Amino acid sequence: MVVSFVPYRIGDVFQLTLRENDDYGTETIYEYDDNDVAFTLLVDDQPAACFGIVEADKGVGFLWGYVSDRANGHGKYMIRFLKGVLDRAMGRYHRLQSNVRADRKDYIRFSELLGLEKEALMRKATANKMDLWLFARVE
Predict the structure, then answer these.
(1) CA distance linking residue 35 with residue 61, whole number of Å
(2) Distance of alpha carbon 98 from alpha carbon 104, whole angstroms
(3) H or E stretch including 48?
């Protein structure tokens, strides 16, 4: 099994078989420019997860990610890699933030392991009325 992170390619996220209830919903899949940061985790040359940072406002980055079951067993590798990405990004941003499903303890734990902290519970924050935690890492 070959596992690697590569620069995100437009469309990688659409090759993922998302986990149950992790639909794309009303979220935007961004088209990236040279200022954005995004990566795809490949497992045997197949996209298993996609992560990135989009500048939400000057100095504020919004973290996004989509994970398939193909990424199972690679959590430590993802955390190690992404912590490095976030550490480097803090030189460019004074705040990194992400919305995390409140009903997914594994996503919450993943966010905490990346060094993000819970800031607020956003109730019924999605089109399908899911609660989300706002997580952030501040300079």
Answers:
(1) 11
(2) 14
(3) strand 46-57
The token duo for 101 is 């499903």
Nearest Cα residue to 43 out of 79, 16, 80, 9: 16
* pLDDT at residue 26 tops 50: no
Cβ proximity of 131 and 123 under 8 Å: yes
109-130 residue pLDDT tens: 999 999 999 999 999 988 889 8
| Contacts of residue 37, Cβ cutoff 8 Å, sequence gap at least 6 | 52, 53, 61, 85, 89
- Mean pLDDT value of segment 25-50: 74
Q: Is 33 exposed, middle or buried, given 0-12, 13-18 or 19+ CB atoms closer than 10 A?
A: exposed
Kindly state the average pLDDT of the residues 84-103.
94
